[in-house]
Amino acid sequence: MRKSRIKPSEPLPMLTPLPGWITATPPETLEVAAFKSGAALAHLNLATSADHVPQALWRERLALAAAEVSAGIAGRREGAGAMRDALHLTKAGDDPGPAGNILRQWSRAVSRPISVSNLGRTLEGVAPERIALSLDATGPTPVDRAALTLEAVLTDSPRGEIAALILADAVLSRALGRDHLLPLLGPVMTARDLRLRGEDLRLCCHRAAVRGVGHDR
Question: Which residues are 113's β-sheet partners?
């Protein structure tokens, strides 16, 4: 089994930081939050267009961060290092355990192009129809589409937080014109955030998008 090159304690200082005015204070209104998340995502696309940015390694790094948060949401105590070891030090065909399986979901999600079939192989138990509906989500901004996806998936499956986050990040990434899923919401959203609905959830997702863009700089 290939060992991951990711080290949880080592950041990847490859991207220029967000302008201070975007992160200075959490926006209190949906309109301001949407403006700031839009600015952050535009900055992200510009900053990551450089040839020197190792896209696959960066996605894998964020997948590990998202998996650690997802494990916490699922009531697991394993940290990033333990999750990485559980997955990458397990023999092929063996069960890496609950935490390792969470990391495997995120790793598979970021390693393959975004499509109904690829996400279907990643998210066991999620119907292709639900994945297709999620990828076709509409909304005024990419983040709004991700928030609507989160709400729809969690309404159908209240305990499906990991699938909801993966699908929401897939929707957000696709709306940004990316071929592969980039975990932006997964590494920063909490169990409390996922209990929100309607405009409260949208506001939370816009704030999370800004934190996600600034994550691991």
Answer: 180
Instruction: Say which residue the tokens 């993966």 belong to.
Output: 166
Long-range contacts of residues 6-13, Cβ cutoff 8 Å, at least 24 apart: 6/57, 6/60, 6/61, 6/64, 6/84, 8/64, 8/79, 8/80, 8/81, 8/84, 11/216, 11/217, 12/54, 12/57, 12/58, 12/61, 12/216, 13/217
130 burial type by CB count under 10 A (0-12 exposed, 13-18 middle, 19+ buried): buried
Digit-coded pLDDT (tens) for 151-171: 999 999 999 999 999 999 999
Contact 48, 17 (CB under 8 A): no
pTM, two decimal places = 0.89
d(CA 161, CA 167): 10
